[in-house]
């Protein structure tokens, strides 16, 4: 299909029939609020992953026509793929003449376990992959959104970190395949925006978690790792002294900010932090998860990770005012829902 999938809005009119006693049927057309079904189309790379799944579910519920391109490299095939147009492909090899209203580029290897073992694939999805998605958006005249990362700040010296902080990143360290390719993508997106006047949105998520987050291995993301270890009564492995902090954002909060940012007709800032401003040390997090799972696990310390930032905290001043949004789910509440989901999975 070469035409942009229509952006039709269907207006449903309700006609009510009333029978009043023995009199003829009276037909009343009631002007109750019209139901608008948005038939916009959206292309999502990495739509089968953790963030993608929740986003796709949301788009489907809003009536969007959804297309996913995902090579299933870091995710297991999900039920949602039956409800959308799905291309099982590497983003770098994706090519289409189809037109979309929105293009969202999520495909990447976001877990340290992946990017340390597959640094080349990591760089390519955030460089060549970004270009493919940008070109698709440009040809469609679509709004383009990219999930960059708080990792672009590296080991930040300004905390909480605002969008204006340029970052302190090791350009060739073990994490550079991820950090630097996210930074490169941001630069490429802004080049497209300046040269082609495209509508672009760059978000920098800070440690999003919730149901469906991947059960990573020992080097993976900290919340699923701790929950899995606690549920299996294994030692919780804290890298280094555990005094490094993170700020965690529950998936529902991420989703509400993302939808507002993407669907806004115009934005004051094209780059936004999407995170939480409440910090917790990794050691406190481990203790909380042991307590909430009522686990017999011990907390042990392993070697600190190379280039692991000491603190991570989002300055949310701009996003709060631009999107009229704030995170509302506490860490305890979010963990409760996440632990419940992990328990259901293991039953
Ligand atoms: N979850 C977070 O806390 C977080 C934080 C910062 C940034 N991000 C960014 O958000 C995006 C989504 O993260 P996630 O947590 O959902 O990760 P995820 O691993 O759950 O999902 C990524 C998806 O992309 C697919 N994929 C990977 N490389 C691909 C390629 N080359 N071609 C096609 N598909 C490919 C995977 O199969 C997977 O389905 C990533 O770009 C990540 O860097 C996430």
Overview features:
347 residues; alpha/beta; 7-stranded parallel beta sheet; two-stranded antiparallel sheet; 10 helices; globular; binds nicotinamide-adenine-dinucleotide
Average residue-wise pLDDT: 89
As an assembly, this protein is single chain
**How are strands sequenced across the largest beta sheet?**
5-4-3-6-7-8-13
Measured between the Cα atoms of the first and last residue, the distance is 44 Å
- Point out poorly predicted stretches: 1-36
General description of the model:
This protein is of the alpha/beta class and 347 residues long. It has a domain of 34 residues. It is 34% helix and 21% strand. The structure holds nicotinamide-adenine-dinucleotide. The site of nicotinamide-adenine-dinucleotide (NAD) has 30 residues, from helix 1.
In a nutshell, what does this entry contain?
The protein has 347 residues and is an alpha/beta fold. The chain has helices at 50-61, 112-117, 119-125, 128-140, 176-196, 222-231, 251-263, 282-293, 317-323, 331-346, and strands at 9-19, 25-38, 41-45, 65-69, 85-87, 102-105, 143-147, 200-205, 208-209, 236-239, 245-246, 249-250, 271-274, 280-281, 299-302.
């Amino acid at each position: 299909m070469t035409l942009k999938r229509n952006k039709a809005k269907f207006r449903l009119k309700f006609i009510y029939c009333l029978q009043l006693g023995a009199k003829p049927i009276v037909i009343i057309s009631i002007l109750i609020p019209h139901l608008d079904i948005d038939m916009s189309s959206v292309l999502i790379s990495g739509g089968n992953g953790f963030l993608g799944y929740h986003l796709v579910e949301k788009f489907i519920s809003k009536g969007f026509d959804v297309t996913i391109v995902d090579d299933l490299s870091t995710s297991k095939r999900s039920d949602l793929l039956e409800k959308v147009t799905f291309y099982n492909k590497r983003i770098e090899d994706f090519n289409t003449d189809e037109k979309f209203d929105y293009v969202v580029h999520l495909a990447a290897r976001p877990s340290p376990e992946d990017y340390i073992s597959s640094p080349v694939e990591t760089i390519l999805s955030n460089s060549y992959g970004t270009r493919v998605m940008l070109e698709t958006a440009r040809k469609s005249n679509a709004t383009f959104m990219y999930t960059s990362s708080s990792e672009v700040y590296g080991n930040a010296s300004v905390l909480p970190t605002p969008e204006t902080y340029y970052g302190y990143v090791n350009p060739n360290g073990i994490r550079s395949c991820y950090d630097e390719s996210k930074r490169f993508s941001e630069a490429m997106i802004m080049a497209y925006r300046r040269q082609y006047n495209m509508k672009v949105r760059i978000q920098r998520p800070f440690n999003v978690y919730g149901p469906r987050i991947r059960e990573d291995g020992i080097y993976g993301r900290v919340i699923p790792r701790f929950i899995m270890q606690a549920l299996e009564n294994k030692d919780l492995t804290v890298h280094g002294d555990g005094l490094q902090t993170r700020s965690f954002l529950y998936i529902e909060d991420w989703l509400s900010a993302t939808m507002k940012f993407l669907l806004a007709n115009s934005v004051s800032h094209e780059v936004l932090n999407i995170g939480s401003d409440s910090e917790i040390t990794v050691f406190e997090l481990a203790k909380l998860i042991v307590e909430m799972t009522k686990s017999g696990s011990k907390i042990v310390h392993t070697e600190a990770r190379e280039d692991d930032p000491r603190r991570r905290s989002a300055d949310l001043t701009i996003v709060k005012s631009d999107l009229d949004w704030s995170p509302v789910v506490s860490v305890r509440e979010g963990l409760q829902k996440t632990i419940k989901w992990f328990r259901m999975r293991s039953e």
